[in-house]
Design goal:
By secondary structure, the chain is mainly alpha-helical. The protein contains eleven helices and no strands.
Amino acid sequence: MWHFDSERRAAAHGEQLAEPSIGQERRETGRLEALSDGVFAIAMTLLILSIPIPTSDALSAHHESLRTAVLAGRHWLPFVTYVMSFVTVLVMWINHHYLFQFLGRVDRVFVIANGMLLLLVVFVNYPTALVANFIGVNTSDGEFAAIAYNVTFVLVAICYNAMWLRISIHRRLLAADVDDAEVSTFTRQYLLGGPLYLAALLLAFVNPGLSIALDAALAIYWAFTGRIVRTKRRYPAHHPAQATSDPAASRAER
């Protein structure tokens, strides 16, 4: 974000700041995506640490073998939590990846919104563990677990919508080759997220299990249908957007 401080200094002196070049913009978006991918990767990798390994002392204390300890029902919940958390973070990464396909440049507001999303990515294992451990145990604990889980994803939806609206409104941060029809389709998909997760949150007060089932259905939707495939528009050779495309791909098209 080379231009943030430059913008402030230029404004203080009443100067006009030169527009960043396409190469500079691509480097900035690439740096932010690389940082985000690193956070997603670390968050997914560290999930395995939530699965406890039985020790010989614990086995002796419970008078059980390693096979019995691993296969016992009380040891399944950490594995369930791991799988739920991994799949949840993976779906979040898939949507983050497709969002960045539309990004042409970044600004301070977008970077902050992306940072808030990454905070939730790292945090999401906690409410997921609550759901895995307490849904179906008793009404009050299961209800609280479902509420905590859905509050987290309402916040996630807010972050995604804030990022997308920052990109798309007035085409502020859009890549030059993005079609208006693509923007409209993606906007409709994103605007569904907030109300649906809010509905799941309200449902958690009535039926926690059904609320989590709705969350699972939404995760499947976002993973498999909650996206669109970017299409490439053709530009004249002198158009600035042409400079961002792969020369080999351009030759193949011609």
